[in-house]
Write a structure and sequence with these properties.
heterodimer, A: about 300 residues, alpha/beta, Rossmann fold, Alpha-Beta Plaits, six-stranded mixed sheet, four-stranded antiparallel sheet, about 30% helix, elongated, B: about 260 residues, mainly alpha
Amino acid sequence: MISVRRLTKNYGAVCAVNDLSFDVEPGTVTGFLGPNGAGKSTTMRIVLGLDLPTSGAALVNGRDYAHMGAPLHQVGALLDASAIHPGRTGRAHLRIAARTHGIPAVRVEEVIGQVGLDTAAGRRIKGYSLGMRQRLGIAAALLGDPQVLIFDEPINGLDLDGVRWLRSLLRNWADEGRTVLISSHQMSEMQSVADRVVVIGRGTLVANASIEELLRGLGGARVRVRTSAAEALAVALAESAAITQIGPEELEVEGLTALEVGNRAQALGIALHHLSDLEVSLEDAYLGLTADDVEYHGATNGGIA
Amino acid sequence: MNTLEPSTPIVLARTIRAEWARLWTLRSMWLFMLVTTIVVGISVLIGFDSPTEASVESAEAAWMPIRRMSMLAMLLLLPMATVGATADYGTGGIVPTMQWTPRRESLLAARSIAIILAVSITGLIPAMLSAVLVTQFAPAQSWSWGAGVDALATLGFVSALGALVAVGVGLLLRSTAASIGTVLGLVLFLPLLLGNLPFTWAKDVAALLPGTSARKLMIGEGLPGLTATDARISLAAWAIGALLLGGWRLLRTDANR
């Protein structure tokens, strides 16, 4: 379990994390979301004892990571896959990690096989692709068979096979009762793998909820309907749902299911040309939650995107 | 997997092993060792060319070229120590290093010990081999255990404390280039520059610099009035001071900000 308690981190005049509190429970995959500069990486660095908090605390299984004597048996983490000396071989990198914990060399070979780097482990890391470096970083994280996994953007650079492998690894890890915290900007991936999400913006907590709770928070069922009698249908549904006309013959209905809309239309004798439930995505939820917290906007020809 | 918390001595021993492996999986370390061996090995040629007669003085004289070339080799050994201390700051490798050894005092001790050992071995082995070659095969030179032990002990002392200065500066500045520049400035350029200026204060400052102390201990040369004891104390003070500053940066600030 990871417990973040009233955590604040200032870099000079910049407040990166501001009075942040949340828990990451065992047995779940928890997504850690937020715009660029929201404080995700800083929070993870503090959890891993790399940065010192200005105030507050971050504990792993009730302990301060910075005081752990054998942290790889407690926490496996990958923050930046490129932060490795490029002149070493992948195997040498892992053996150094293993030596810090008295982990036998045979375990190094096991994790090399587990992440699929068997043929590349003897090569210098400078020849590795980003995906291979991610795999190497994940191998180092798995070395001590830890109870907690913390990955910052682990999907970056992975090929499809790698993404599927990582997805199943995280799922299995959580199903075994372990704690998994991952950050990512790939919302579809997060929606498919995460049980819960912690969303932060400008260093403060925006949401801490299950995926279902987050999606429900967007306003419940929404239906897209197309008919030549759009106006009449809109009037008929207006009492029990919020109606938005999105085209001359097209409505978006919020608050009723497709079945309910279809039954009403049939009762009114209105012919429908299209009727479907609208899928609400984590991306929609995330964008709604963080709209006011995006610090860095990209510019387009027309101005701010 | 075993989740028992290891004792501090076990953590330290494991970290020293890891730091040792970390050093010797860097190509630059082997390159430093090779060039140091060549530089110190030149003393063999000097020894063979020496006309000294066999005597007690010649036993000491047999070591003088080795002392001189080892002094020159300090210009390789100290950058070697600096690279050992700073390499993973430049690459970002300090992040996994600190994840694996979050007890920073253990990391500080282990890194210092591993670098002292690496630098001392790299300096001492070529010196010993050179001495054996000179005294065994050069007819004008003779072996003396006393002179040899004194020369090697001095070389070991200067290498170890010089390495600590380099480690301290490296951990403080966290930049290989800036650290090598600073260390070479303290050891070579500033002592030379200040020692040759026509001002008393400049010579006083030069006398306090680690390069002046190392020169006094290694080859007996230096500013007037500087004793070997002064030089030892001065060098030890530099090593302790540098390590305190570098240790403060490592222990009390963010990992690589």
